[in-house]
Automatic annotation (TrEMBL):
Record's protein name: Gluconate:H+ symporter
Keyword Membrane included in the entry's annotation: yes
Entry keyword set: Cell membrane, Membrane, Transmembrane, Transmembrane helix, Transport
Organism whose genome encodes this protein: Chitinophaga nivalis
Pfam families in alphabetical order: GntP_permease
Membrane topology type: Multi-pass membrane protein
Length: 438
């Protein structure tokens, strides 16, 4: 009966988001209250569960996501993202333009949110398409695959960062494992798959036919690359040092734990960016702070959605049904890493949002992960890979790609939806390979 109630609540959530067009945060709260009542939690205890779920989920995330949004916004506003793309295109030359754009998308995708990166890269993709008369989907899809993969696999993006918190994983290790999984997934879902898309008919939006944006007062190449990649460099470096210095003095271990905290790392990166992409580019501190304020506005709804998903997770936990679900799932005799991936994939197919799919699946799979003692870092990546599966008509990314590239529904399915499915499956394969060797 409890399993049926959870299924019913997830179905109602899907209907509220799709058919009802309701705000995701409001929908999560309504479904959380309904779930609490149906699962037998006393009515006066439900508000406490909601508050605890929202607080516990957002407590370690607000600073990471907000600081990451500020850094990404400044990278875009300062012209550093465009400088990275232009530099790579000069280095690779016309013959390897697809690879230049792919690498640019991957680097830019690390600090930038998917929607910002998409809007930033599409004009550059089309300028290359028009200049060299190349197939638009063939050139552009690998770049957008890179943006999608960083969004699903790599912290400090909202969904991976939230999953790290939920599963009590290590941000640095998750990032390292994520890079190992992301690169093969990108190669297969990007350049390899795009080879079969050269003949897809498309008429890209003509508004991108000329790009007259001046390159003056843009940060230098070294500055742009270093600032954009600094969070990755620091997290990987500190994680490596923690491993090498695991037998050091307690004071050293305490300092490394402090330095490796994701919030501390992101704060340091933001301070560096404020100087390198702000002050050094003759921007006033006031204008840089305005960029940061605008960035926070962009992620408020993302934070609320994550908090709403945390409320539902807590209601399921307080009712005891999470443990019951874990017991039922355990009887399916499916490895937990595959089960987490499958759960996220099913929710993604129903709801469309990768972030909601990942967070919702995490709340359901967490008790089973703890019981089976699965590596939490790999669990983050497994659920993240599942949350990217089969983007279709209920996903905003699907329509962004269709409209910008002026494709038919059929060809959007054959290109975009298949690409997202490939990277989701490749992500799971990569996780299982890592799990075998670890």
């Amino acid at each position: 009966m409890a399993f049926f109630i959870v299924f019913l609540c997830i179905l109602i959530l899907i209907l509220l988001l799709t058919w009802g067009k309701m705000n995701a945060f409001v929908a999560f709260l309504l479904v959380s209250i309904l779930a609490g009542l149906l699962l037998g939690i006393p009515a006066n205890k439900i508000p406490g569960s909601l508050q605890k779920g929202i607080g516990d989920t957002l407590g370690g995330l607000v600073s990471i996501i907000a600081l990451g949004a500020m850094l990404g916004k400044l990278v875009a506003e300062s012209g550093a993202a465009r400088q990275i793309a232009n530099t790579l295109m000069r280095v690779f030359g016309p013959k390897y333009l697809q690879w230049a754009l792919l690498i640019a998308g991957f680097i830019i995708g690390i600090p930038l949110y998917y929607g910002v990166g998409f809007v930033l890269m599409v004009p550059l993709i089309f300028s290359v398409v028009y200049q060299y008369k190349l197939p638009a989907v063939y050139i552009g899809l690998p770049t957008l695959a890179a943006l999608s993969i960083t969004h699903g696999f790599l912290p400090p993006h909202p969904s991976p960062a939230a999953l790290v918190t939920q599963f009590h994983a290590d941000m640095g290790l998750t990032l390292i494992y994520g890079l190992l999984v992301a690169i093969p997934a990108l190669l297969v879902g990007g350049p390899f798959f795009a080879r079969y898309l050269k003949n897809i008919p498309t008429a890209p939006a003509t508004l991108f036919k000329s790009d007259a944006t001046p390159d003056t007062q843009v940060p230098g190449s070294a500055n742009s690359f270093l600032t954009a990649l600094l969070p990755v460099i620091l997290l990987v470096l500190i994680t490596g040092l923690q491993y090498l210095l695991k037998d050091s003095t307690p004071a050293c271990k305490q300092f490394m734990a402090f330095a490796g905290d994701a919030t501390v790392v992101m704060l340091c990166c933001l301070l560096v960016a404020t100087f390198s992409l702000g002050v050094l580019q003759q921007r006033s501190i006031k204008s840089v702070m305005q960029v940061y304020a605008d960035a926070v506005k962009d992620v408020v709804m993302i934070l609320l959605i994550i908090g709403g998903a945390g409320a539902l997770k807590q209601v399921l936990a307080d009712s005891g049904v999470s443990e019951q679900i874990a017991v039922v799932m355990q009887s399916w005799h499916i490895p937990v890493l595959i089960l987490g991936w499958l759960t996220a994939a099913l929710i993604r197919a129903c709801i469309g949002s990768a972030t909601i799919a990942g967070i919702t699946a995490a709340g359901m799979i967490l008790p089973l992960m703890v019981r089976e003692q699965v590596d939490p870092n790999l669990m983050v990546l497994s659920v993240g890979a599942g949350s990217l599966m089969f983007s279709h008509v209920n996903d905003a990314g699907f329509w962004l790609f269709k409209e910008y590239f002026n494709l038919s529904i059929k060809h959007t399915f054959l290109s975009w939806s298949v690409m997202e499915t490939i990277v989701g499956v490749m992500g799971l394969i990569g996780v299982l390979i890592l799990d075998y060797f670890l």
